[in-house]
Specification:
Layout (H helix, E strand, L loop, with lengths): L1 H35 L2 H29 L13 H29 L6 H23 L4 H30 L3 H29 L9 H9 L6 E9 L5 E8 L6 H12 L6 E7 L9
Parallel strand pairs: 2-3
Antiparallel strand pairs: 1-2
């Protein structure tokens, strides 16, 4: 138990550090983007603002999930808070990316000059800060830390692209590259938003997890000794990580009740469900749930 608490404390600490680094650098980006008149810097500021929101909500979610357990109001616990956090983040990033498009597209055809040296300095700073934050979360054991680490690594690669663009601008004065980078960053953000909203939508609609073949699961339970029929098999996910399964099973031998239930639980264990409910019916009339 103490080891689990220790890892949880480290997870919260790493996410908190990454959050403050990101928030601080986002403010620097906004100021720097306005100073250098770089739309690509401002586009990445929108990206990092989204990361800051994600990190802040992940920090809060990690803390809440540690301190609060399931209760009469939240019978499955607080895992679904992560869905709410993702939805809020997606809305904020959608608005920000749309504004970037509105500003960047005209500049693609009528470029505006700025300060290439300042862009280079900010890009180098972006690589260093995001790289450090990614490193701090890369050794984490929680899903939150792993997702955040990969996201921060994406940010590093984005800043490498901005750095390369700034260097080209410095020696060629091709300021249309700045607008092109901004559009590319905005498209990247919106593509991720669409993917995220698709996953959120599937979770809200309680679509069965992609990694679980429900037909195969039904056949597996049906093939067990003592099982006559399988119905009302429902599989869904609370948050994309914690999956739940419920099933009604018909048997014809009352004496085999416990043995059949144990066999089913043993088979379902390989799926690592967070919660399983098994209803045993002794005859077809026993099942009144539709």
């Amino acid at each position: 138990m103490q080891s689990h608490d220790h890892h949880s404390d480290k997870a919260v600490s790493a996410i908190r550090l990454a959050f403050f680094l990101n928030v601080g650098f986002t403010l620097i980006e906004i100021a720097g983007g306005l100073y250098t008149n770089s739309i690509s810097i401002l586009a990445d500021a929108v990206h990092d603002l989204g990361d800051s929101l994600s990190l802040g909500l992940a920090w809060w979610f990690e803390s809440v999930s540690r301190k609060k357990s399931a209760n009469d109001s939240f019978t499955y616990g607080y895992n679904r808070l992560s869905l709410l956090a993702s939805f809020i983040n997606a809305v904020v990033l959608s608005v920000g990316s749309t504004l970037i498009f509105i500003k960047a597209i005209p500049r693609l055809f009528q470029p505006e000059s700025g300060h290439a040296d300042g862009m280079i300095l900010l890009a180098v700073l972006g690589v260093v800060i995001n790289g450090y934050a990614a490193l701090k979360t890369s050794h984490g054991k929680s899903l939150n830390e792993n997702v955040i680490s990969w996201h921060l690594l994406e940010d590093v690669l984005g800043w490498v692209a901005v750095l390369a663009g700034a260097v080209i601008i410095r020696f060629t004065d091709w300021w249309w590259i700045d607008a092109a980078l901004a559009i590319a960053i905005a498209l990247f953000i919106l593509t991720n938003i669409v993917r995220r909203l698709w996953k959120i939508g599937r979770l809200f609609l309680q679509v069965s997890p992609e990694e679980i073949d429900v037909g195969e699961l039904r056949e597996l339970i049906s093939s067990l000794e003592g099982v006559e029929d399988v119905h009302h098999l429902h599989v869904w996910s609370l948050d994309g990580e914690h999956n739940v399964a419920t099933v009604h099973v018909l048997i014809d031998d009352e004496a085999a009740y416990r043995k059949v239930k144990t066999r089913i639980r043993d088979q379902l264990a390989q799926y690592e469900f967070s919660h399983v409910a098994i209803e045993i019916d002794l005859n077809p009339e026993d099942c009144s749930t539709v």
